[in-house]
Amino acid sequence: MRIVTYNVNGIKARLPRLIEYLAEQQPDIVCLQELKSSDETVPEADIRAAGYGVAWHGQKGFNGVAILTRGADPQDVRRGLGGDPEDSHSRYIEARVGDIVIASLYLPNGNPQPGPKFDYKLAWMERLAARAAELMALELPVILAGDYNVIPTHSHDDTYSVRAMADDALMQPESQQAFRRLLAQGWTDALRARQPEGALYTFWDYQAGAWQRDAGFRIDHLLLSPEAADRLTAAGVDKAYRGREKASDHAPTWITLR
Predict the structure, then answer these.
(1) Model confidence over 221-248: pLDDT tens digits?
(2) CA–CA distances in Å: residue 6 to residues 3, 11, 18, 219, 237
(3) What sign for the dihedral angle of Cα 199, 202, 203, 208?
(4) Could you tell me which CATH number the domain at 2-257 has?
(5) Whole-model pTM above 0.90?
(6) What is the DSSP letter of 207?
(7) Which secondary structure element, helix H or strand E, spans residue 54, and what is its range?
(8) What pLDDT does 109 receive?
């Protein structure tokens, strides 16, 4: 089973690339982020024509997440992350696919920091940790997949330049500590479980020739419960898709499970 997380950076703008990816790779489950589309304008018909069921949680112009499943619809869909009834951002969707519980999440960027956007990021991470603990307690195969907007380490394995990112919300000690506290519940960082060393990037900015210089960093993660991690056979980044015409600034990031 091949499971992908993919920040599409606008599902309508990237629809040809998404359909192309589905046709070429035929993943079983795809978690999308940053749809930038209202619930009413998600291109459901195109996705279904490609052979995928879909559940989504949209928001006009911003955010938005979805789960695509090959040949069937996601079940037991939960939209939104609890813990803050005033939070109007569409950043979390959760569903069952067979015996797997899977969530697609788009964590706040947090810039500029310090400030209210960074405070919101850290509060959102605490809410995610609370839900993650509930999911861990189910003792089921669970996958928390998405754009976490966190560079996990101060290492060139995770970012092209520690100096360039030093003041960014993605690499602040508070962001990294919140990510480590999440892992400490028992989650496995799938990419590093299979590729423990070496540069492994999932995002390259559109600015300053970042793609051409390979000036990327790793912010798209798939975290696995022990029951899912036991079935992990491979993980990687479909980097070449970042180089295609009118591509997202993220590359599809994937795992395979038995």
Answers:
(1) 999 999 999 999 999 999 999 999 999 9
(2) 10, 11, 9, 11, 10
(3) positive
(4) 3.60.10.10
(5) yes
(6) S
(7) strand 52-57
(8) 98
154, two tokens: 């101060």
Split at pLDDT 50, 70, 90, the class of 27 is very high
Please report the pLDDT score of residue 184 as a whole number.
98
Does residue 105 sit in helix, strand or coil?
Answer: strand
Q: What is the pLDDT of residue 193?
A: 98
Please give the helix or strand (H or E) that residue 109 lies within, else none: none
Question: 76: burial class by Cβ within 10 Å (0-12, 13-18, 19+)?
Answer: exposed
Report the helix count and the strand count for the chain, using DSSP H and E: 7, 14
DSSP letter for 242, please.
G
Q: How far is CA 146 from CA 49, 86, 207, in A?
A: 24, 23, 22
Residue 116 in 3-state DSSP?
A: helix
Q: What was the pLDDT predicted at 225?
A: 98
Show the tokens assigned to 70.
């090959």
All residues at 6 or more sequence positions from 24 whose CB lies less than 8 Å from its CB, including other chains:
none
Encoded tokens for 168: 């960014």
